[in-house]
Amino acid sequence: MCIKTYNQLMQRQESFLRKHYLFEMLIFEIYNTLQSFSPSSLNTVELFSELSPFLKARISFIMHSQTDASDLFKTHEEIIKYVADLLADKIFSIHVKNGGYYYEQVEK
């Protein structure tokens, strides 16, 4: 996949999550979950299982009711991976190791 196509896909994924009011909620919950489980790492399945019941239900509803969801995300875990990767890329205290995400307190 060329860089332009990849960037367009990333923009479509973020736009889709924002349209369905998931983007900010997922950032908040994934960040807080990683922080509370620190220093342990969690994979995407574990992160999904730790989400609030409301957010899990919302993701499931959107995945089953929106036809364009399957074009952007194949599974619930892909949504979690997208947001967790974004957090790991943008926030210095979130890291990825062996397929797991973890929060590490940054010394000041």
Report on the structure:
It is built from 6 helices and 2 strands; from the N terminus they run H-H-H-H-H-H-E-E. It has 108 residues and is mostly helical. It has one domain. A two-stranded antiparallel ribbon has the order 1-2. Strand 1 and strand 2 form a beta hairpin. Helix 2 crosses helix 6 and helix 3 packs across helix 6.
Key features of this structure:
108 residues; mainly alpha; two-stranded antiparallel ribbon; 2 strands
Oligomeric state of the chains? single chain
* Low-confidence runs: none
Biggest pleated-sheet summary: 2 strands, antiparallel
Based on Cα principal axes, name the global outline.
Answer: globular
Quickly count the domains: 1
The counted number of beta strands is: 2
Number of helices: 6
Strand content: 5-15%
Please report the distance between the alpha carbons of the first and last residues: 39 Å
String of helices and strands: HHHHHHEE
What order do the strands of the largest sheet run in, or round the barrel if closed?
1-2
Average pLDDT over all residues:
89
User: How helix-rich are the residues, as a percent range?
Assistant: 55-70%
Radius of gyration computed on alpha carbons: 14 Å
